[in-house]
Structures are given as C-alpha cells and as structure tokens.
Amino acid sequence: MVCFEDVLKLSPLLLGLVVFCGCSQRGELVGAASVDQLNVPDQIAVGFNHHQRNRYQSPISGEWRDGDDIEQMLVQAIELAQHEILVAVQELSTPTIAEALIAAQHRGVTVQVILENNYSTPWTEQTPSQLKSHQRQRWHQLEQLADQNRDGTTTPEEAKRGDAIGLLRDHHIPIIDDTEDGSRGSGLMHHKFVVIDRTIVLTGSANFTRSGMHGDANRPRTRGNVNHILRFQSDALAALFRQEFGTMWGDGPGGKQNSRFGLQKESTGVSTVMVGESRVDVLFTPHRKHNPNHGLNWVEKQLDEAGKSIDMALFVFTAQQLADALQRRVNAGLQIRLIADPSFASRSFSEVLDLLGVALPDRNCKLEQDNQPFNKGLKGVGTPRLARGDKLHHKFAVIDNKKVITGSFNWSPSAAHTNDETLLVIHSHQLAKHFTREMDRLWDTAELGITPRIQRKLDRQRIRCGDGVQIERR
After folding, report:
1. d(CA 64, CA 306)
2. Contact by Cβ (8 Å): 192, 205
3. How many Å separate Cα 382 from the centre of its chain?
4. Overall average pLDDT of the 283-302 stretch
C-alpha cells in the first residue's frame, strides 16, 4: 500500500517519475531532477510532456528525453487504486494503461471505461483499406508501435499485445461509447479524465495514446503532441466527476439505453469545490446555444475579468465571441500572448487570424458572416516550432498570473454546444506559475506574427478569389 501523504509531498514535476513502494520508505526517483522546482498547491500535481526540466526514458525509442512521463503518472495512479477506477477518454490506445487497468480488475478493483465511438473498436479488428485517411494513418502507427522487437514485422502475437482496446475486451473490462444511448454518437465524447477510489481525479489535455504522449513510431524526431495532465486529491472534486461519469454510463453495456451523452444530458452550470486551499470551478458540457451557462460564455467571463495579462496555449480557437472578448481586453491595455497549433492557426475559420488582423477566405472564397479581424494585428501571437506530426494540444489560459483555465475544452462552438467536455478554472498563483513557465517555453522558440505558412495561404487565396470574396450567410 502506498501512502498518499508521501506521494503528495513530492514535486508534481517528479510525480510521474516515481517508482512507488511501501509506506515504510519514500519512492525512488528515476531520471534527472530539476534544481529549480516550483512549489505546487496542496493536493494538486501537474505534468507537462515537453517539459525541459525533467527527463524520462521514452517507451517508444528507449532513449532519454526531456519531459514529464504523463503516461506513467496515469499508470502509477491506477496501480494505487483499491476499489474503483472510472475512465472517460476520447481515445485509449496505450497497452501499458490497458494492462494496468486489467491488473487492477484482477486484484478486485471495479473498472469501467467510456470511449468515443470512433475509437472503441480494437484496431486489430479493422481493415485499413476500409478506413478513412486519418483512421488509416492511425492504424499503421498502432501497428508499428506494436512491433516490440523493431524488426519491421508485427506478428499476430505482438499485435494482440499492442491492441489496448482488444486487451480490455479480452479481459471483460466493461466498456461503452457514446452510441450506448441508442444514437449514432454525440458530437464527440471528448473527455479525458480518470477517477480513482472516489478521491483522485486525473484530467487535462492528453488522450491516452503513445502518439499523443511520446511521439510516433515511424517518426523518430516526434515527441508527442504537446500536452499536460493534472492530478487532484479531493473527495468533493471526485464526486463531481463521478456524477458526470454516471450520467454517461447509465446502467452500463447492453442495458436500457439510459446512458446520456451530448445534449441529452441535463444541462447544469458551474460547480465549485475547494482542493486544499485552491478553489476549483468545474463545468461539464454541452449546453444549447440559448443556455447562458454554456462554456464559451463562461470563458468569455474569465477573459472580461482579466486586469493585467492573458496567456493562451490553444489547439483549436474558432469561437468569434472569445476573439471579440480579447479585442476588448487589448483595447483596455492588457498584455496578450497566444501560442496556437500551426495546423489550426492557418485555417479559414481560425480566430488566430482575427488576432493577426487578417481574413482568409475558405475554398469557396467565402468569409464567415461575423468575421471581425483586429484593425491592428497583435504582436503577441505565434505558433510553436514542432516536429512534423506533433501538435500543440493544450487548451489552457492563464489569467493575471493567478487563474488557470484548462481541461479537454477547445475554444470552439462544438466544445460548448455539441461535445462532452471538461472545463476547469483553477484559482491558484502557485499552479499558474507552472502553466506560465510552459507558456514561456513555447514562446521562446515560437514564430510570431504572420508566418510563412499563413502568408502562403493568404497569397494563394488572394490569387484564387481576387475580388470575389463573399460573406457566408447562416
């Protein structure tokens, strides 16, 4: 048995590198520890997989690399479970996590898993030629990851051991997806959380995939999508997540179709709990557009309350009302920094373009009806330099260096009005410092302003559309 008290005394940036042992002695730290660790709030830990102050051994290449091993943060928490593990995640393809869940079930722990329906079929049961391009690419990546001896051939036995969902089903771990309610699925079951023994919650931006955490097997330069995971010890917070899980779970697989996903769920507003000395506000989505409690309204409220600065690291930013809120904050003299994923920043519907003061017509030479580019583009907007195949997958903002907005919630209408999402606002100067340091790391090497990639798109559309740009009518 492991003492939570001992675990929580460790820096969260080392938590993912702990080999847990009995309560009679402290865990052994593996890898290089940082000499400038930041303090953390009581009962909260955080890990960043591209961190530069810790190192861990990649399970893909075996090489030591910078970052926190957020996969091991999850596995070690699962290994501590004594009674119950509830998992709600869009995608789970990591065999190590599956094996930890199976081991937990074998020692008598109740294990239940909810997935997004696009990722709930074992990949070994799929035929690549019948998959869409993205799913086919995913299939080949998983096949390569399953090649344990790296001889270029994935044997049937290796494939079986490397199929996380197949392993769970073979060991009769109960699983449902968002079709359990009798529908074709919600917008997206986009949650990324685990609740353990009604007291531990792990959540953040990361899906439970090797590609999302460590990199791609066929691309040695990749380091995984840029992600973070938070760990909370709080009965009150765990109760909120268990309630959300229970609404989606209903009576489980093959039951009365009383699971509720998406807009079928009863809309609720923000709940607040204290985790140690830190206030944590929680909102589960979606909500209908006319419901004032929806997530975009809540994020807008946080932005409007900012008095000094706003830092943002965002995968998707397509909500016009939040761009408008940032314009108000700029007009009020606040310092604004935004680092956005390169692949989304340059899309025609991206609000990153608004902040840069440019408009990009879509393939039909149309602009969104409410498109409002800033009159003067911001200098504090950029995209990170990442290996080909990696994405900036964060969904966080830091307000006035004292408040963190995070969760699975992308800044988009779909996140607010269609998907099952987690949105958190954490009031903590100490935690904000960790996210600010991550923002600083991204900022130090970012391409700021209109990047060559964006400029090429602007030039192509200018030639293609000429003066024929239209406003899209809704």
Report:
1. 40
2. yes
3. 20
4. 97
Tokens of 350: 């991206």
Q: In whole angstroms, what is the distance from residue 301 CA to residue 292 CA? A: 11
pLDDT at res. 192:
98
| pLDDT value at 355 more than 50 | yes
- How many CA atoms within 13 Å lie on the side-chain side of 329? 26
Strand spans (E) along 206-327: 228-233, 271-275, 278-285, 309-314
Q: In the beta sheet, which residues pair with residue 424?
A: 282, 406
| pLDDT, tens digit, 9 for 90 and up, residues 259-273 | 999 999 988 899 999
The pLDDT of residue 86: 98
Q: Which of 260, 261, 211, 231 is nearest to 424 (CA)?
A: 231
Q: What is the pLDDT of residue 24?
A: 30
The pTM of the full predicted model, rounded to 2 decimals, is: 0.91
Q: What is the mean pLDDT of residues 163-175?
A: 97
DSSP state of 446: P
What is the C-alpha to C-alpha distance for residues 196 and 84, in angstroms, rounded to an integer?
Answer: 6
Strand-strand pairing, 421-427 and 309-314: unpaired
Instruction: Indicate whether 286 pLDDT > 90.
Output: yes
For residue 192, the 8-state DSSP code is E
Sheet containing 309-314, strands listed edge to edge, beginning at the edge strand earlier in sequence? 271-275, 278-285, 421-427, 403-407, 395-399, 309-314, 335-340, 381-383, 447-448
The two three-digit tokens of residue 21, written as one number: 């042992």
Helix, strand, coil percentages (3-state) for the chain, rounded to 5, are 35, 25, 45
Task: State the number of CA atoms in the 13 A half-sphere of 235 facing the CB.
Answer: 0
DSSP output for 7-22 = HHHS-HHHHTTEE---
User: CA-to-CA distance for 307 and 160, rounded, in angstroms?
Assistant: 54
CA pair distance 118, 189, nearest whole angstrom? 9
Query: Locate tokens 């094996």: which residue?
Result: 99
Alpha-carbon span 192 to 87, nearest angstrom: 8
Query: 383 CB contacts (<8 Å, ≥6 apart)?
Result: 339, 340, 341, 342, 345, 392, 446, 447, 451, 453
